[in-house]
Design brief:
Chain lengths: 422, 950
């Protein structure tokens, strides 16, 4: 197996990172849309990306990342060795196990919550839901901080569904998620009545008009506005990015023709085109009854395309700059109920993540023998959110400055899980 | 613009003590302009041209750009007061209240709505209020007192209902929207970044909402607001463990005194399942009343600052919900003046906006002239300002110490009052218990009474039967059965009488018990009253202390604000000075470059001259050399000749002397003598020759000397000239190097000039010395596009025609102004309805999300794609009678077309360059005029100039 580039601890790497952090620390974040450009130009050289795989309903940590075989809570499945000696995961994830050397596990999560809505919010927004206060989704934060004006593609994409999500809070709709279902965005084709040359001519006229006006006064806002026209034109040229059917038939076969397979392939396509944030989801994990049958079925569908995706990102050299997170709103109870199900459980559960600056092959945190409580390095969604941002080289303790108001990027009372970063 | 320095320093004394004497004589807009002019730092823009003014005014007060007819009319008007007339006309128009309703709606709701009350309904309510000129404080009072039960103003409850009556949310948003303070971060502790915002401020406001909740037991019925009679705004800092409790207090207001009611008196409608409780004392009502009766300065400052922001694109205090001493108004005295004027004028929005629109500040251009100022005066001013800033900070520091002391004292007093609170709560519990006992005893009394009544009724029935039976037995004396029955009945009647007696005794007992309970209740109530009374002075004391604290805080805030304002002035002035110095430096460099370049030019003329001369000198030197050499040769030749002659002479002399000798030894000497004679003759001749040659030689030597002199002169000339050329060339290369260095320095300085100029422009914008660029709101953008393309007009024409056909106006009605106006209103309402979907499309694309701040600009590719490829804009630009494209198609001349195009979309005349651009565009595809026209219109509609208000 190829040694992947992310295990790079060389001085050049460190220097680059420091330089990059320096740019961020210089308050560029505080300058609004205009200010992000200097950051963005730095990032253009080393675009970072995030992929979130959301297993909705609450995947069982015992049937995935933290198996407890042969205990009262363990259930029927075995734990299997992975490509990292000493790390075992559930036998339901045989393909993923082979990529464990590129991934890491956090096994000490306690989110103190057993409600779907609240858990889903915690994990994706990094805070507890509070009445009257809205925070931006991880995707919006990423889209804003990793924005590259040279890339016309939207910065925050949900694969599956459509429309624009109102999940960017104070960061504004520019960074809200866009649902993509294999079709290009609205209005991205030129109407038949307007030829390409006509379009070019009218755009040139517009540019001349802008030049005349802006030579008198130019502001950050006028820049953003004129830029958006050019972005639209570039987006029109890149509309095929959204057409997953253009991927080779062999890959479509390999990933599987079901929705999740297609979505994984779409995610690969978008990440390859430097979309900063992509989220895909896989459902049906709320297994109050028949937990084992459902997990057998669902994880069977998950395992192949997910491992294909990790393998491909790695082989294409993207994993070192792409943070991959497999998350859920919570885990499931160690106790097996009378319907062979497991119930909601936020007290001691796990996620899997890797890529970017995440140290590969690490396990952080530990639960007790039958998984009923965290016994080492307990963390919650706040710490995770900080860690995601830190893994992208961002200083998660800085604030966004929106129209003169300060908004901390992540919960200021939480911190980064430093030991997980390489 | 340049000011004498004496004025600048003079202003510093005026600074805080702006007296009211002038205020009475001068209209508000002049006062504002004077205050701004007095504190001008750096350059100030001239008055904007008419077109810019009109566009700005229409956008602000009518919510759209002017139509091509309106702008033409205004530009053609040459009366001197035409701006004031236009302001009055637009303010009197139908569109003003509609536009203002949008502004207020977006301000108050941040695009929330539709869950309980449709947004349109709330907007209508605002519009109606504005049409009725409802004073703003009464509007606010209505909104903040609305529990949803008043049918006439049900929509006013939207502010509460659309926030789900969440107390935290209401506290935050009432603070932000009505008082300009965002207290969110002071919820769990004093604000970490803003010294003025204390946790008690959050809870002072929170006290009004802590008892409210959403009431909607049945989803089929309208939601209402329920309010409990109990629940306090208690708090504890998560940082310091400081505890407190506070009654309702408006920001900058007095804490409200609220009667303490004991259990049993607290509700008009007591809480129960599916029953909306109504407290005897409603805190919402108190809030509403306080705003209607005694709105605080903070209330007036907030709304006037927001109205200012609406017209100027930026607040005097900015952001608008962060009023505090670390962020004071850029002109505090203007802020105070506005707030006072607004309050004194009865909280009327329209007259205030009129005054603001009349200011020079509002009517300024966005083009800023270059800065010209006396540098020395500026430096002096800077020194004064810096000193002032230092003084204010020092004073603030001291005042902060006083505030801290008062806070500690207050904390202590709160703790001391704890036992009194506990005693009161205990007394209330006893009242509650006594009330319960009274209730129970009462129930028992009522039971006994009921029982007695039943007994009596039964007895009566039996008694009646007894009478009848008795009569019957008397009539039928032998009937034994009857007699027996009589006996039975008699017995029953007796028994029943006994029961009555017994019950009466029971009742008396229960009544006695009730009496006792009532007495107990009285005792409990007396005790509770005593407890309330005992606590009252303490409460009073606390309120007094909080008031004292408030005064100390006010003092501190004033000092801090002064320090900040002075500091800001220092920074602005520093930028101006820095910029000025850079410009001076640049001028010096340019001067140097120009001098040196002049010299270089001179050198470049001199050097060829000198080098030409050198060439000449070199030529003459060569000639002189040649002449000298020739002469030298000649001279040498003569010398040679002389030598020959001398040699000949010597030979001859030798020959003669030999011959003489021979003659002496030889006898036959005739021939010898002859020979001697010959020799002597020859010798004489040679002597003659020698004289000749010697003479020639000396002559030649003189000539040679002359030639030598010539040569050396020529050589000197060459040498001097060479030296001169060398010097000149050295000077030239030195100068060239210097000019290069200077040019580099110049470009560095120029870059810094550009950067500082940007800062100067920004500061001037923040100080309202020049107009800024503000993006159009989604609604302004939508209506402006509809006006510019002529789509609005198209709808108007179509709807008018339809209405006139369906409901023709009688001839009489058509003459009647009122009826005509009514008809126009009807038409306009239908046009608005027809265009509503289009406006909604814009709002969806261009507005921030619901519940989010609406003042952050953003632009997305999605918006641009909509503009570029969306069906809407394309359809509106398609030629249709009377629309923009149609009007443009009718223009035959390119320049006339350009004028129509620019007036219609950008509300101004095109420049010659722009006419040329349009002309060339049309000429590029003469056979596709319709396409070209639509493309040109599209280009301008998508231009930055159209997107922004400037």
């Amino acid at each position: 197996m190829k040694k992947h580039p992310q295990a790079c601890h060389g001085p050049v790497h460190l220097l680059e990172r420091r330089k990059f952090l320096g740019v961020l620390g210089g308050g560029a974040l505080g300058l609004g849309a205009m200010g992000t450009r200097s950051v963005a130009s730095e990032l253009a050289k080393q675009q970072k990306r995030v992929l979130v795989v959301f297993l909705s309903g609450g995947v069982s940590q015992l049937e995935t990342w933290d198996p407890k075989p042969k205990t009262d809570t363990g259930g029927p499945f075995r734990a299997i060795p992975t490509s990292v000696p000493g790390i075992h995961i559930s036998e339901l994830l045989p393909h993923t196990a082979r990529h464990m050397d590129k991934l890491s596990l956090i096994r000490g999560i306690n989110t103190r919550n057993g409600d779907h809505g609240k858990g889903s919010y915690q994990m994706q927004y990094g805070r507890n839901e509070m009445p009257g206060i809205s925070y931006p989704h991880l995707g919006a934060v990423v889209a804003r901080t990793l924005e590259n004006p040279a890339n016309p593609l939207p910065g925050n994409i949900r694969v599956g569904g459509g429309g624009r999500g109102s999940d960017a809070a104070y960061l504004g709709p520019r960074y809200g998620s866009i649902g993509v279902d294999g079709k290009p965005p609205a209005n991205s084709t030129r109407p038949e009545t307007i030829s390409e040359s006509m379009d070019r001519q009218r755009q040139e006229f517009r540019r001349r008009a802008d030049q005349r006006f802006l030579s008198q006064r130019r502001t950050a806002e006028t820049e953003v506005y004129t830029q958006s026209h050019d972005q639209a034109l570039q987006l029109m040229e890149k509309r095929e990015v959204f057409d997953v059917s253009l991927e080779p038939a062999r890959d479509q076969e390999r990933y599987g023709k079901h929705d999740f397979g297609t979505h994984c392939l779409m995610a690969r396509r978008l990440l390859e085109n430097d979309v900063p944030f992509v989220q895909i989801s896989h459902t049906n994990y709320d297994t109050h009854n028949e937990n084992f049958n459902f997990h057998l079925e669902q994880l069977g569908e998950f395992d192949t395309p997910f491992s294909c995706l990790i393998g491909d990102l790695h082989e294409r050299g993207l994993l070192s700059s792409t943070l991959v997170i497999v998350m859920s709103e919570f885990g499931r109870t160690p106790r097996i109920n009378s319907l062979y199900g497991r119930d909601h459980w936020g007290t001691a559960w796990s996620i899997c993540l890797g890529g970017a600056m995440i140290q590969p092959g690490a396990v952080i945190g530990k639960t007790n023998d039958n998984g009923t409580q965290v016994i080492d390095r307990e963390v919650d969604h706040g710490h995770l959110f900080h860690t995601y941002l830190a893994a992208l080289g961002l200083d998660s303790n800085t604030s966004f400055n929106i129209a003169g108001r300060e908004f901390p990027m992540a919960d200021p009372s939480k911190s980064v899980i430093r030991e997980l970063l390489s | 613009m340049q000011r004498p320095p004496s004025l600048i320093t003079g202003v510093l004394f005026l600074f805080w003590g702006w007296s009211a004497t002038l205020a009475e004589e001068m209209p508000l807009h002049r006062q504002i302009d004077q205050l701004i002019a007095a504190r001008q730092i750096g350059p100030m823009s001239e008055r904007a041209d008419d077109a810019t003014f009109a566009r700005r005014l229409f956008l602000d007060l009518a919510g759209r750009i002017p139509t091509h007819l309106e702008i033409q009319e205004f530009l053609a008007d040459s009366t001197p007061d035409k701006r004031q007339k236009l302001i009055d006309r637009v303010l009197a128009g139908e569109e003003f209240p509609r536009q203002m309703a949008i502004v207020l709606d977006v301000m108050l709701m941040e695009r929330r709505g539709g869950t309980h009350i449709p947004s349109d309904k709330f907007r209508e309510y605002l519009e109606t209020s504005l049409r009725q000129s409802k004073p703003f404080h009464l509007l606010a009072s209505e909104i903040l007192g609305a529990d949803g039960s008043d049918e006439r103003i049900h929509e006013a409850a939207a502010f509460f209902l659309e926030r789900n009556v969440e107390p935290q949310v209401l506290t935050r948003d009432v603070g932000r929207m009505f008082f300009g303070i965002d207290l969110q971060c002071a919820q769990c502790h004093n604000h970490p970044l803003i010294d003025d915002y204390l946790q008690q401020d959050f809870y002072g406001l929170h006290a009004f909402f802590v008892r409210t909740s959403l009431f909607q037991p049945d989803k089929k019925n309208r939601a209402l607001i329920a309010e409990q009679a109990t629940g306090e705004a208690t708090f504890k800092s998560v940082f310091t463990d400081r505890e407190g409790v506070i009654g309702g207090r408006l920001p900058e207001g007095r804490e409200m005194v609220e009667a303490t009611l004991m259990p049993g008196e607290q509700y008009r409608v007591a809480p129960a399942k599916d029953v909306r409780p109504i407290p005897a004392i409603s805190r919402l009502e108190m809030l509403s009343k306080a705003i209607a009766e005694t709105p605080t300065p903070a209330f007036s400052r907030n709304i006037t600052n927001r109205l200012w922001t609406y017209l100027f694109g930026r607040g005097l205090v900015h952001p608008v919900d962060l009023h505090h001493s670390g962020n004071p108004a850029v002109y505090p005295e203007v802020m105070t003046l506005l707030a006072d004027h607004f309050a004194a004028g009865g909280y009327q929005i329209k007259p205030l906006l009129r005054e603001l629109a009349l200011t020079d500040a509002y009517q300024r251009s966005f083009r800023l002239p270059p800065a010209t100022q006396d540098m020395q005066a500026s430096r002096d001013q800077l020194a004064t300002l810096t000193q002032q800033a230092g003084q204010f900070s020092e004073q603030a520091e001291q005042a902060a110490g006083v505030v801290d002391g008062l806070i500690d004292k207050l904390d202590e007093a709160v703790l001391q009052g704890r036992p009194l609170e506990t005693a009161e709560q205990q007394a209330f519990k006893e009242v509650e218990a006594a009330l319960k006992a009274v209730g129970e005893a009462g129930a028992k009394v009522r039971g006994a009474e009921q029982k007695l009544a039943t007994g009596k009724a039964n007895h009566q029935v039996v008694q009646d039967a007894l009478e009848k039976t008795r009569l019957a037995t008397e009539a039928l004396k032998d009937d034994k059965e009857l007699a027996s029955a009589l006996k039975t009945i008699e017995g029953r009647a007796m028994a029943l009488a006994g029961v009555i007696q017994q019950t009466e005794a029971e009742l008396a007992k229960e009544q006695a018990a009730l009496q006792q309970m009532n007495e107990k209740l009285t005792v409990a109530r007396t005790a509770a009253d005593a407890a309330i009374k005992a606590r009252a002075p303490h409460e009073e004391q606390l309120r007094g202390m909080r008031q004292e604290l408030f005064a100390a805080r006010k003092n501190l805030e004033t000092l801090r604000a002064q320090a900040t304002v002075a500091q800001r002035a220092v920074e602005s002035l520093q930028t101006v000075i820095q910029h000025g110095e850079l410009v001076q430096q640049q001028n010096q460099i340019a001067q140097q470059i120009s001098t040196q370049s002049g010299e270089l030019t001179e050198l470049s003329k001199q050097i060829p001259e000198v080098s030409q001369q050198l060439t000449q000198y070199q030529a003459s030197a060569e000639q002189a050399q040649m002449a000298y050499t020739t002469k030298m040769r000649e001279h040498e030749q003569i010398q040679g000749e002389k030598k020959q002659v001398e040699a000949t002479q010597a030979q001859l002399v030798a020959a003669i002397s030999q011959a003489d000798a021979a003659l002496k030894s030889l006898k036959e000497g005739d021939s010898v003598t002859q020979a001697i004679k010959l020799l002597q003759e020859s010798s004489a001749k040679v002597d003659e020759d020698l004289v000749g040659v010697t003479s020639r030689l000396s002559e030649s030597a003189v000539q040679l000397k002359e030639q030598e002199n010539n040569l050396s002169l020529a050589r000197k000339n060459v040498e001097t000239s060479t030296q001169m050329l060398k010097t000149l060339q050295q000077r030239q290369s030195a100068l060239q190097a210097s000019v290069q260095t200077l040019s580099q320095e110049q470009s560095t300085v120029q870059a810094r000039i550009a950067a500082t100029w940007n800062e100067v422009v920004q500061n001037a914008t923040h100080r309202f010395q020049t107009a800024g660029l503000t993006p159009l709101t989604p609604e302004q953008l939508a209506w402006s596009v509809l006006i510019a393309t002529g789509e609005h007009n198209r709808q108007h024409v179509a709807i008018t025609a339809k209405l006139n056909k369906e409901k023709p106006l009688s001839e009489e009605a058509a003459q009647n102004a009122t009826q005509l106006a009514e008809r126009n209103r009807e038409i306009e309402a239908l046009v608005i309805t027809a265009l509503k979907p289009a406006v909604k499309t814009f709002v969806n694309l261009y507005a921030a999300g619901s519940g989010q701040p609406q003042d952050e600009f953003f632009a997305t590719a999605e918006q641009s794609l909509f503009a570029a490829n969306g069906a809407e804009l394309r359809n509106w630009l398609r030629p249709s009678p009377g629309n923009l494209t149609d009007r443009l198609m009718q223009q035959q001349e390119a320049s006339a077309l350009a004028t129509e195009l620019y007036l219609g979309i950008l509300s101004r005349q095109p420049s010659p360059e722009e006419i040329e651009d349009v002309t060339a565009y049309l000429a590029s595809r003469p056979e596709e005029k319709s396409h070209c026209v639509q493309e040109l219109a599209w280009g301008l509609l998508c231009s930055a100039e159209f997107r922004f208000r400037y």
